[in-house]
Write a structure and sequence with these properties.
single chain; 434 residues
C-alpha cells in the first residue's frame, strides 16, 4: 500500500492538462473512484486515443477492487488490467514515454501481489486446513490470476490448494495452466500433474503427461522410468520395455539404465506372480474337492467332470503364467547381471537379483505343496533351496553397501531361517529391528 500511495502522489501532482483527466486525478485523491472513471471516460469520448484516460480508469478500478470483498473483486481487477494494458498500448503507439507508462507493470504487479500474498498468509502447507480457509485462499489466487494470468507461480499454488480441497479437475487444470504460461520447463510440474491424474484414476492421462516430459528430457532416467511405469499400469508392457531399452541402446555401458530396465521388467513379473500364486492355491483346493467328490459313496459324475475340466484349465493357465514369468525374469536377470558387471556394488541391482531368486524359490515351494508325487515334491524342494542359496550373495552385498537398510536384513533373515542358518538368522533379525 505504501508503494501505491507514493505512486499516487506523483500521478496527481500538477495540473494544466485535460480538465477531464485533472478531474479524474482529483476524484482518485478524494477516493471517489466512480466519478474518476466517469471523468476519464468523458476524456476518451472526446479522444479515443487518450492513453492517460485509460490509465486512470485502470488505477481507479484497482483502488475500487481493494474496497470490495475478496469474492467480489475479480471484475474490478479485470477492468483495471484491461484499461492499464490499453493505456500501455496507446502510449507505445504514440511513442510517449511517461511515468504512467512506466508504472503500468508496477500497478499490475501490485494487484497480483496483494492477492497472492494474502493467499499465502492464510495457508499453513504443513498442516491440514479448514475448507473455508482453503476456499478463501483459492479466491485470492483466482483474483491474482486475473491480475496477472501469466504467473506460473500462481497456478502452481492454486493447483496445490485445489488438490487439498479435493477438487482434482481444477487442480489438474491449474497445473496445466502453469506449464502453459511458464517461461521455462520445470519437471516437478509434470510429476505433480501425473500424480493428480493418478489420484483421479486417469492412467492414460499419465502417459500423455510423461510423454510430454520425455520429449523435453529424453535422457532423464527418472522421466523414462515414470513413463515406463505409466505404460505398465495400463498393460502396455512392450511400450514400457521399449522406451527403457532405447536408453540402453544409446548408452550400453550405463549400469543405471540397465537397472531401470531390469527392475521395470520384474515389476511386471511380480504382478503375474501374484496371479500365479492365487491360481496355485485355487488348483490345490480344486484337487481336494475332486478327491472328496471321488470318495463319495455315490460319486456325482457330472460334478467330477466339471472339476476335472476346471483343473485342466487351471493347469494350462498356470503353465502359461510360469512360462511368461520365466521368460520375462530371464531378460530382467540378464540386464541386472550386466549392471552388476559394470557396477558391482549397485545396491538396487543386487537387491533385485536377490528378490528374483527368492521369488523363484517361493514358486517352487508352492509347486511342492500342491503336488501329490513325493519324488516330484522333493525335486521342487531342492530347486527352491538352490534358488535361496543363489539369493544370498546378492542380499549380503546389498546389506554390505547399505548396512542400515532394514529391508535388506529382513530378506536375509527370512532366507537364513529357511536354509537353517540360525546363527546368521539371529544376527540378521537384530539388524532388521525385529
Amino acid at each position: 500500500m505504501a508503494v501505491l500511495a507514493l505512486l499516487l502522489v506523483g500521478f496527481i501532482a500538477g495540473c494544466g492538462g485535460d480538465p477531464n483527466i485533472e478531474s479524474a486525478k482529483l476524484n482518485i485523491r478524494n477516493k471517489d473512484y466512480n466519478k474518476a472513471i466517469e471523468s476519464a471516460q468523458t476524456a476518451i469520448e472526446a479522444n479515443p486515443q487518450n492513453a492517460e484516460a485509460y490509465y486512470y480508469i485502470g488505477l481507479a478500478y484497482s483502488e475500487k477492487a481493494l474496497l470490495e470483498s475478496v469474492y467480489d473483486r475479480e471484475e474490478f481487477i479485470a477492468s483495471s488490467r484491461e484499461n492499464l494494458l490499453k493505456a500501455k498500448e496507446l502510449y507505445e503507439e504514440q511513442e510517449l514515454s511517461t511515468s504512467e507508462l512506466k508504472n503500468v507493470p508496477v500497478l499490475i504487479d501490485f494487484m497480483w501481489r496483494v492477492e497472492y500474498n494474502d493467499a499465502i498468509e492464510l495457508v499453513d502447507f504443513d498442516r491440514e486446513q479448514h475448507p473455508d480457509t482453503l476456499n478463501l485462499a483459492i479466491r485470492h489466487l483466482q483474483n491474482a490470476a486475473t491480475a496477472n494470468p501469466d504467473s506460473a507461480m500462481t497456478y502452481d499454488v492454486l493447483g496445490e490448494l485445489y488438490f487439498r480441497n479435493n477438487d482434482l479437475p481444477n487442480a489438474i487444470s491449474s497445473v496445466n495452466k502453469a506449464i502453459e504460461v511458464a517461461s521455462d520447463d520445470d519437471l516437478s510440474r509434470y510429476y505433480r500433474l501425473a500424480f493428480f491424474h493418478q489420484q483421479a484414476n486417469e492412467p492414460e492421462k499419465i502417459i500423455d503427461i510423461m510423454t510430454q516430459a520425455y520429449k523435453i528430457w529424453p535422457d532423464d532416467i527418472e522421466v523414462v522410468q515414470e513413463l515406463a511405469y505409466a505404460y505398465m499400469r495400463v498393460g502396455r508392457t512392450e511400450d514400457a520395455t521399449d522406451i527403457v531399452n532405447d536408453l540402453i541402446n544409446r548408452q550400453p555401458d550405463n549400469a543405471e539404465y540397465r537397472v531401470v530396465y531390469g527392475t521395470q521388467l520384474y515389476q511386471n513379473v511380480l504382478t503375474i506372480n501374484d496371479e500365479l500364486s492365487n491360481n496355485l492355491d485355487l488348483l490345490y483346493n480344486k484337487n481336494r474337492e475332486l478327491n472328496q467328490a471321488k470318495s463319495q459313496g455315490s460319486p456325482n459324475q457330472n460334478a467330477i467332470n466339471q472339476l476335472e475340466a476346471e483343473i485342466n484349465q487351471l493347469e494350462t493357465t498356470i503353465e502359461e503364467q510360469r512360462a511368461d514369468v520365466e521368460q520375462t525374469t530371464n531378460v530382467a536377470e540378464e540386464q541386472l547381471t550386466r549392471a552388476i558387471e559394470i557396477e558391482p556394488l549397485n545396491v538396487t541391482a543386487n537387491y533385485f537379483m536377490g528378490v528374483i531368486h527368492q521369488n523363484r524359490a517361493a514358486t517352487y515351494f508352492d509347486l511342492r505343496n500342491i503336488t501329490e508325487d513325493n519324488e516330484q515334491a522333493m525335486q521342487y524342494n531342492e530347486m527352491a533351496m538352490s534358488e535361496l542359496n543363489k539369493s544370498l550373495p546378492y542380499y549380503e552385498r546389498a546389506a554390505e553397501v547399505e548396512p542400515d537398510n532394514t529391508d535388506f536384513w529382513l530378506s536375509l533373515f527370512r532366507v537364513y531361517t529357511t536354509l537353517g542358518m540360525m546363527d546368521k538368522a539371529e544376527e540378521a533379525q537384530g539388524k532388521a529391528g525385529l
